[in-house]
């Protein structure tokens, strides 16, 4: 009988310690209070944003330019195309639609984009300019997708362009879930 009581007590302790681990994990996710803002033209960055959402539980918000980019707009072989002009003239800021974020409720922001001309597209600069004041006390994790370019050049242009924002080192996706978790833990 004593042995039975002993086994039951151990079973209860094990069950309680397991459930508190689950609670702790859930709490960590909730504590992050994060949002993912991303721009995509052909869908790759949306898939990347989903990967980040799966790893963090953050809500995804798509950045939409007021004037969508046509296929001719993103023709980088044409010197007159919209994307080439936005690349050559770094002061251009294509208008974006307003987004629904309660900045008071978040502490971390993920910003995703396709690499255009080795760096962040001008739409991302519009976003950072427009909401910069509200972003000052947030931690920002940039991420990208690209054909082959690494994240490092966009890391450099973002740091240079927005020295007052707390921008962390970015990540190029797709990436393994462990890599994403390691990235955001830094
Ligand atoms: C205008 C333009 C410029 C690009 N410049 C680069 C580049 O410099 N380096 C690179 O590796 N990929 C470049 N790409 C490829 C995109 O970064 C890549 O296809 C990305 O995954 C597209 O993301 P999306 O599907 O979310 O739009 C460029 C694509 C476009 C349309």
From TrEMBL:
Q: Name one Pfam family in it.
A: Flavodoxin_4
What keywords were assigned to this record? Answer: Signal
Which N-terminal stretch is annotated as signal sequence?
1-24
Q: Which residues form the Flavodoxin-like domain?
A: 33-185
Q: Does the keyword Signal apply?
A: yes
Listed PROSITE patterns = FLAVODOXIN, PROKAR_LIPOPROTEIN
Gene3D superfamilies referenced in this protein's UniProt entry, alphabetically:
3.40.50.360
Query: Would you say which domain of life the source belongs to?
Result: Bacteria
Keyword match Signal: yes
Cofactor(s) recorded for this entry are: FMN
Could you identify this protein by its name?
Flavodoxin
Q: Which organism is it from?
A: Coprobacter secundus subsp. similis
């Amino acid at each position: 009988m004593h042995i039975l009581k002993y086994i039951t007590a151990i079973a209860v302790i094990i069950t309680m310690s397991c459930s508190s681990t689950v609670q702790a994990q859930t709490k960590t996710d909730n504590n992050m209070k994060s949002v993912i803002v991303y721009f995509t033209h052909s869908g790759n960055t949306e898939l990347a944003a989903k990967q980040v959402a799966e790893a963090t539980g953050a809500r995804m918000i798509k950045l939409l330019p007021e004037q969508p980019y046509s296929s001719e707009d993103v023709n980088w072989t044409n010197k007159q195309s919209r994307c080439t002009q936005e690349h050559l003239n770094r002061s251009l800021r294509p208008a974006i639609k307003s987004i629904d974020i309660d900045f008071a409720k978040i502490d971390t922001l993920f910003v995703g984009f396709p690499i255009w001309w080795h760096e962040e597209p001008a739409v991302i600069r519009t976003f950072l300019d427009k909401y910069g004041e509200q972003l000052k006390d947030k931690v920002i994790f940039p991420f990208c997708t690209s054909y082959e370019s690494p994240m490092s050049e966009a890391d450099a242009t973002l740091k240079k362009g927005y020295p007052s924002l707390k921008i962390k080192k970015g990540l190029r996706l797709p990436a393994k879930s462990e890599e994403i978790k390691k990235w955001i833990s830094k």
